[in-house]
Amino acid sequence: MDKPASTRQLKVAREIQKVLAEIIRSKGMAAFGGAMVTVSEVRVSPDLSVAKTYVSIFPSEKAEAVMNMLNEDVKGLRGELGHKVAKQFRIIPEIVFYLDSTLDYAEHIDELLKK
Hints:
Elements (H helix, E strand, L loop, with lengths): L6 H21 L8 E9 L5 E9 L4 H10 L1 H12 L8 E6 L2 H13 L1
């Protein structure tokens, strides 16, 4: 079982989530083939070297293509993140993107309930 995140991990995760969301929003939906990308959660490793970044993508049909775009540009995104938070963080964590499927799951449950 994972031990609970420290206050520092939570603060770093919150800041990364906020800044990454700004960066992705500033690129606009056109950069992601018209899909809306939301940074839903960030979890930082205990040594602050890895940021697991969960993104939800709407519409979900574009999820695979958008995940590929994000993973191809992960170095660029990390660079932009580094410029924006350089004063706050000593090391900029590696960013690893994961698809957050909770929206799809909620939609699926909704469909089942309507039957």
